[in-house]
Amino acid sequence: MTTAGDGDDKRNDDNEQDTERTEDTANGGGDTADDDTDTAEDEDTETSVHADYETTEIQVVGPNGTERGSVTAALADTPALRYLGLSDTDDLPTDRGMLFVYDSVADRTFVMRDMDFGIDIIYADAEGTITDIHHAPAPEPDEDGETQRYPGRGQYVLEVGLEWTVERGVREGDVLEFDLEASE
């Protein structure tokens, strides 16, 4: 997903004005081994999605401490990675996501620039408390996604597959738990 706004950042940060796109470092699927088994292909797809990114494990926890879901999230923690986001990704397995990391809480707007699939956009404050959730469908074939804008306020923004939050009962007030120090 992409952010838009003052800086037209894929994930918009009002304090950053990113204008360049990085090379294709976030392409879903990647190279696959010449193996006829579905298991080998599934494993290769699972491990190759954003293989060049650092990652962190994220658990979504409800107010009573119940885990609602978890994903391995690629970290988009630089202006270039935030701008690129999931745009060059072919698909996103249900156990994967992307976490956009900013220095502080701010109003942000994400757009669906060059997206091939729909996503849920989860905004969270400095403590990881979810402040807003958007369900963003893929742009139509004749659209580039620039007009699909999803505003929110947060320091962290997690993107997962469309309806991931609905299927797991994730809602505002739940908490994203992760450790950026332990990222790979």
UniProtKB/TrEMBL annotation:
Positions with biased composition (Acidic residues): 32-46
InterPro entries on file: DUF192, Saro_0823-like_sf
Stretches that traverse the bilayer: none
Region (Disordered): 1-55
Biased amino acid composition, Basic and acidic residues: 7-24
Protein name: DUF192 domain-containing protein
Organism of provenance: Natronolimnobius baerhuensis
